[in-house]
């Protein structure tokens, strides 16, 4: 019965997405696919971006964090707010002034062709790997709680789900995503609130009682100022949060592509600041849910799972909280996963066609690349399933630290200096910086027993920046 409930929920959900896709793809052109004809209402973009930014990883991983690091993840979220302000008022004006389709065109105009291609290729690698991690969540959960029981191989699961994303994004691209992400964010919030209400009901608490109990719980600690070696130290988390947003949003074609569909710079800035402010309360709700679920486990004498990623699924996907929670959990996890994966597939297609092939007007090429990116996406999901052994949200930030660092260094050099790079050295420097970071992290663990956390991103970007500075053209100021 549970399996049938989930399957019917998914079928209804996909039908709604395909209907939205059909409604938004009339008279679609390449400009529609890449830039949404620059006609997107800013408030729809802002609301939809919440779901796209949260992703299925947050839906699954964040509640389970409370049993290992409390609510200290909110320190990073507070840094996110300043990061979004920086993107809105530093980077967006540049992108709108240059009327960019992809943000990496800036690197070509400021630094040179090899810098431009390097930035585009690093984005392709970063986004493909990071998005595969995120989308792996929904594939893994469906496989574990439904499809294993009926003998469906994981490879088929991944292939079918990615094919469905390809189907509703293939024509309208970014214009379709503005509307589907709005729908998916609404579904995510509905699922989150319904699950919280159901858990409070099982604990026999009202809202006021739940807030009081959560606030008094030891797992609700937010700030860590007293341990500089801890990965959860406030300043490490806060500053890393700022730069994570600058890199993962401001220097990420996927996240910026939707913002660049707004009619004016002013509207894009309102969109960016609005959904940036939403991150703290949204993640606070997820963490509060984690505390409530842990209390429910203690009340029922159920041992907590060894992996934090399994806390919410342990109750929500197994029917422990009732059939309606299974429905809403399925909707929530699919909504958050699809809203990040569909935009990633669109952005990857855009970057490859516009930046790598430099053929933005070739519609036939766009269709072929879009299908090919879907196939590569499936391969990355299968690779991650084979090799991953860490917490999912940490896995994403580890990937970000190694692959987005060179992008941070390139953009910082272009924005903060007036020097010209030695363009032929840029690809080698961009590869050398992550390799050196890996070596430094290994040495630090062996010699000082210190493990780099999210600050590895800053180190990576700094090394790239330093390499560009040392090898710059000397005869040009």
Automatic annotation (TrEMBL):
* Gene Ontology terms: biological process: sodium ion transport
Subcellular location field: Cell membrane
Pfam families annotated for this entry?
SSF (PF00474)
InterPro entries under this entry?
Na/Glc_symporter_sf, Na/solute_symporter, Sodium:Solute_Symporter_SSF
* Main location, first listed in the record: membrane
What Gene3D superfamilies does UniProt report for this protein, alphabetically?
Answer: Sodium/glucose cotransporter (1.20.1730.10)
Which membrane topology term applies here? Multi-pass membrane protein
One CC-aspect GO term: plasma membrane
Is Nucleotidyltransferase there in the keyword field?
no
Single annotated GO MF: symporter activity
* Segments crossing the lipid bilayer: 44-66, 73-96, 150-169, 176-197, 234-251, 272-299, 311-335, 369-387, 393-416, 428-448, 454-471
**What protein family is recorded?**
Belongs to the sodium:solute symporter (SSF) (TC 2.A.21) family.
Q: What is this protein called?
A: Transporter, SSS family
Q: What's the source species for this entry?
A: Hoylesella buccalis ATCC 35310
């Amino acid at each position: 019965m549970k399996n049938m409930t989930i399957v019917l929920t998914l079928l209804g959900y996909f039908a709604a997405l395909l209907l939205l896709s059909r409604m938004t793809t009339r008279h679609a052109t390449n400009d529609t696919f890449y830039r949404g004809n620059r006609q997107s209402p800013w408030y729809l973009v802002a609301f939809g971006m919440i779901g796209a930014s949260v992703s299925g990883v947050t839906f699954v991983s964040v509640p389970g964090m409370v049993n290992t690091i409390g609510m200290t993840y909110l320190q990073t979220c507070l840094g996110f707010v300043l990061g979004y302000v920086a993107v809105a008022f530093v980077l967006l004006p540049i992108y709108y002034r240059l009327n960019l389709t992809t943000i990496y065109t800036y690197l070509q105009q400021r630094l040179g062709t090899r810098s431009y291609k390097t930035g585009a290729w690093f984005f392709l690698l970063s986004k493909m790997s990071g998005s595969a991690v995120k989308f792996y969540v929904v594939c893994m959960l469906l496989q574990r709680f439904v499809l294993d029981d009926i003998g469906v191989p994981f490879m088929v699961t991944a292939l079918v789900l990615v094919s469905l994303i390809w189907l509703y994004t293939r024509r309208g691209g970014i214009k379709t995503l503005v509307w589907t992400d709005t729908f998916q964010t609404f579904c995510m919030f509905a699922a989150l609130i319904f699950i919280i209400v159901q858990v409070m009901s099982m604990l026999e608490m009202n809202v006021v009682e739940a807030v009081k109990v959560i606030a008094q719980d030891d797992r609700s600690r937010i700030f860590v100022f007293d341990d500089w070696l801890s990965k959860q130290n406030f300043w490490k988390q806060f500053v890393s949060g700022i730069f994570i947003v600058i890199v993962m949003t401001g220097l990420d074609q996927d996240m910026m592509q939707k913002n660049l569909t707004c009619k004016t710079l002013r509207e894009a800035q309102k969109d960016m600041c609005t959904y940036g402010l939403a991150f703290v309360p949204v993640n606070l709700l997820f963490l509060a849910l984690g505390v409530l679920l842990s209390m429910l486990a203690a009340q029922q004498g159920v041992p907590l799972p060894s992996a934090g990623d399994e806390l919410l699924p342990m109750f929500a996907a197994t029917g422990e909280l009732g059939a309606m929670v299974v429905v809403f959990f399925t909707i929530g996890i699919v909504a958050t996963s699809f809203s990040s994966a569909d935009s990633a597939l669109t952005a990857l297609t855009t970057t490859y066609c516009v930046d790598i092939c430099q053929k933005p007007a070739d519609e036939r090429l766009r269709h072929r690349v879009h299908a090919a990116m879907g196939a590569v996406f499936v391969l990355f999901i299968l690779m991650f399933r084979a090799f991953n052994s860490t917490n999912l949200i940490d896995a994403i930030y580890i990937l970000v630290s190694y692959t987005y660092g060179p992008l941070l260094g390139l953009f910082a050099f272009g924005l903060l200096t007036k020097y010209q790079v030695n363009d032929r050295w840029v690809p080698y420097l961009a590869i050398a910086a992550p390799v050196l970071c890996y070596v430094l992290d290994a040495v630090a663990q062996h010699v000082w027993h210190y493990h780099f956390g999210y600050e590895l991103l800053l180190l990576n970007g700094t090394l790239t920046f330093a390499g560009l500075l040392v090898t710059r053209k000397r005869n040009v100021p």
